[in-house]
Amino acid sequence: MSEAVTGPAGAPAATADSEPILEVRDLVKHFPQGGGGLAGRRRGAVRAVDGVSFTLRRGETLGVVGESGCGKSTLAKLLMCLERPTSGRILYRGQDVTRLGGRALKAVRRNIQMVFQDPYTSLNPRMTVGDIVGEPFDIHPGVVPRGERRRRVRELLDVVGLNPEYANRYPHQFSGGQRQRIGIARGLALNPEVIICDEPVSALDVSIQAQVMNLLGRLQREFGLAYVFIAHDLSVVRHISDRIAVMYLGRFVETGTEREIYEHPTHPYTQALLSAVPVPDPGLRARRRRIILSGDVPSPTAPPAGCRFRGRCWKAQEVCARTEPLLDVPAHLGGLPGPERHPSACHFAAERQPAAD
Asked: Which pTM was predicted?
């Protein structure tokens, strides 16, 4: 009988689980401008996240992609309960964490951890690596007995591919890729079920990005982790995600499997993003049509009525200004077989892109 794979502190790895670990329902976060009171209300609010819903299962990765300012990092903070939502619900194992506080919220946070974007600013330069990785044990003292902490820290460093002897060194003695491995080790310390990865490789060189991505994939397989992987680089997201959500101006505009999004995009915004991804094959590059969007991204304080993308869309018609499209399988695609049938918030969703000039 083969030996069971275990996590850093002995947690058994899991197989695919049909029950959602994390459920997000109509999540909204608005930031009032100009402070509180009547003056602040008159200035409106930044609608950073404006009605996001998804589910996440054990061992699964949801990739969230979109351009800067679309609300991705705010979504990450909401999932970590670092920000309180304006409305909506975040359910962890069926429990609404938006209504929790104190010890109950602390217990949930043990199971939802985060890997931050910048490995140079997310590690305290005055703490040793051992203290950084072991700090979660101070916040949650019941996880590991005090006498076992040093051994656990060394074990965690080994799991992420670092020499356990480095525990007494400081962050400035490591490269960017090594620092991100330290951040990942810290995220694993409490044996979480969910890890929120907020652009974890965007600050790294391309060759180091691949190493960190491979590490995240290995850890997921070994420990049954679920990831929400946030990025603006679509080529990075493709290699780690089971499902992908494309975000624009606070909302998801298209969701689907990796194949559905990358091989059969139906929303114009997704098609435009994918057209900008570099293609190494000269033959494929010559046949691909680059989509150049016109206009600017609307202000998140006053998004346009109807479809938020209509001011930059070559398909926009009168109905787009009157009625906001829902994120659903479009009725006119409902009879089609295969990967074209996935949710897309567009009245004229279609795999066909604009014809070349």
From this structure: 0.86
